Amino acid sequence: MNDLVVYGSPLSPFVRKVEAVLKFKGESYDFETVNIMDLPDWYREISPAGRIPALRDRRIGTEGVPGTIADSSAICLYLDRKLDTGLYGESAFDAGRVAWFEEYADTELAMNIGMQIFRPLIFPLFTGAAPDLETARKAFGETLPPRFDYLESALQGGAYFVGDRFSLADIAVGALMSQLGMVAELPSIDRWPALIKHCEMIKVHPTFTDNLAMCEKMLSGVLPEKFDLS
Predict the structure, then answer these.
(1) Degrees, nearest 5: CA angle 42-7-227
(2) How far apart, in Å, are the Cα atoms of 81 and each of 3, 40, 74, 98?
(3) What is the structure's pLDDT at 128?
(4) 230 part of a folded domain
(5) Which domain covers residue 163, as residue numbers?
(6) Shared domain check, 166 and 76
(7) 134 and 195 together in one domain
(8) Which of 49, 84, 94, 157 is packed most tightly, with the most Cβ within 10 A?
């Protein structure tokens, strides 16, 4: 039994973000699956907003609320303080920039990729219904390109978002872009070369490979091939 427990589902980009931080530090942890569609009462107690993930540090508390933190951003900050991850950059300004890209990913990307593409395409398949291609294609063709433009410009042709080094900014953006890549072909490398190279780097980065392999296994039964949303 490990000190740290992650509660959630591997398919969540926010769970993926937390797992990536733990993998980056080589920290062992337990994982307990929580069904987001039918949250148990004990989980609602430790995550009042009813979202995943939540983290438990058994050194602080083993039952109930004590020792738990909800929300991926709060968890990542806790892990940085606890494990000295170095994922917030070298300077105070770097830390602020990292926090900004994390917020951008968790809001702008999550709303459009998670709520407008992943859920409309995947959730119906789990119930035998038809995917909502119209909603997904509109998001892919209209609302996401300006976000991709911004991320492309932020990379400035480089490999990382902040300080020429791998940081939580890369993890946060990568967690959402990989969510898109699970279900659909990625956008054009001709228009967004740095962003797509970043996506390809994330796919094989050791902080992501275990989670992405598990997600591929989970989706294999309902998603025979990726959607073309262009």
Answers:
(1) 120
(2) 16, 30, 11, 15
(3) 86
(4) no
(5) 92-219
(6) no
(7) yes
(8) 94
CATH label of the domain that carries residue 185: 1.20.1050.10
- Spatial separation of the C-alpha atoms in residues 213 and 110, rounded to whole Å: 21
114 and 66 both lie in a single domain:
no
Beta 30-33 vs 4-8: how paired, if at all?
Answer: parallel
Cβ-based neighbours of 99, under 8 Å, separated by 6 or more:
88
Number of domains in the chain: 2
**Residue 224 domain-assigned (yes or no):** no
Residue 225 lies in a domain: no
| Amino acid found at 225 | E
Q: How far apart are CA 184 and CA 230, in angstroms?
A: 9
95-98, long-range: CB within 8 Å, 24+ apart, which pairs? 97/161, 97/162, 97/163, 97/169, 98/161, 98/162, 98/167, 98/168, 98/169
Question: What's the whole-number mean pLDDT along residues 172-186?
Answer: 96
Say if residues 189 and 196 touch (Cβ distance below 8 Å).
yes
Find, among 116, 130, 96, the residue nearest to 179 by Cα: 116
Which residue has 């920039």 as its token pair?
Answer: 97
Tell me the DSSP string of 104-158: HIIIIIIIIIIIIIIHHHHHHHHTTPPP-HHHHHHIIIIIHHHHHHHHHHHHTTS
pLDDT reported for residue 135: 96
